[in-house]
Each structure stands twice: as structure tokens, then as C-alpha cells.
Amino acid sequence: MRRRLLLAAPVLLGACSILPERPNVPVRRYALAPRRPATLDAPRGAPVLLQRRMRAVPGLQDLGLRRARPDGAYEFLPYEEWIAPPADLADAALRAWLQASGRFAAVVQAGTRADADFVLESQLTVLETAPPAQAGQAGEARAAIAAVLLREERLASRVLATLEATGTAPVPAGATPPQQAQAMEVALGRAFAELEARLVLPR
Length: 203
Known about the structure:
Oligomer: single chain
Distance between the termini: 89 Å
Largest sheet: 6 strands, mixed
Number of helices: 3
Radius of gyration: 24 Å
Shape: elongated
Mean pLDDT: 88
Order of helices and strands: HEEEEEHEEEEH
Low-confidence stretches: 2-17
Strand content: 25-35%
Helix content: 25-40%
């Protein structure tokens, strides 16, 4: 038996040598949590907002950092990912942002037993970087959100407003993936700020 193993060893080693060598590249993951510059306290009697889970358009359900190509197509940066689906991260960040705005007594999630005065449904429609228009110029990070403000009364829902908010941030020429992820976070924060400004609540 021992002799057979010794004879088979060179064959096994030779077989191992023909396997392709794959580099072990670690995946880098990034948070997506823009924060409001200042936290304000809500006045007495401020309304309660129910924020339903944010959805994402096709192409923004993947974890990879997305980049637009000059030909209009999209690509995902290899080994560069968000720590969770970007719409889930944006959902949590938007809830914290609106809670810090001082406009609501509470911003709650679906499934709560709290009585909500308003309901916000939203969708992440853009989160990407784009190449510069000309060589040597800065690129751009872009974020956009579409939302609907509702009032639910008994078994009916009434649309109060449809909202669209966008944000951009410069991306330095030759930016690294961490710089691109940071720029997208800044762009998303600016989209949040625009959404907050457009969120006019009826009395």
C-alpha cells in the first residue's frame, strides 16, 4: 500500500500543477449612510411619518458599485461592494435623516402600531458614478430618489404629492473605488436634502 501511494504521489502533484492559479483578491465593502448636518428637535404636536421600505430600480439591487460607461451602458466595479443592497442602506439613512429634520415626532417603519399622519413611499432610481466629459476633468457621482407622499384614511390612500430629488458630487480624475463610494454617499445626502425641502406637509 505504501509503495502504491509513493508511486501515485508524482501523478497527483502533476495534476495539481495544471490547475489555474486564481488570485485571492479581498472584497472591499462600503457603508452608505449620509447624515444630516444638524439634528433638530420636533415641536410639540409634530406629525408622525410612516416610511415604507425603499425599493430600487433594476440594476440597483446588486451590491457592486455601479459606474456608467461613455457608451451609456453600466458596469460594476470588481471586488468593490456596498455592505448591503443600496436601497436598504438608503432606506435606513433616509429614515434617520428625516427624524433629525425636526419636522416629525417620529419616523416609523411598516409594521408599527403607531398611528401615522403621513406615509412616504420611495424608490432609489440612480446611484452611480459617471466618467468625465473630457480627459483630465472631474467625473460625477449621481443619486436620485422618486417618492410619493400619502395620507391613509380608513381603507383608502390619498396621494398628496409626487416628489423627485437628485444630488451630485464631483469625482476626481482617476478616483479610487473608496473615493467613488464616498462621492456617491455625498450625492445621496444631497438628494435627501432636496427631498426634505420638497416634502411640504399639508396642514
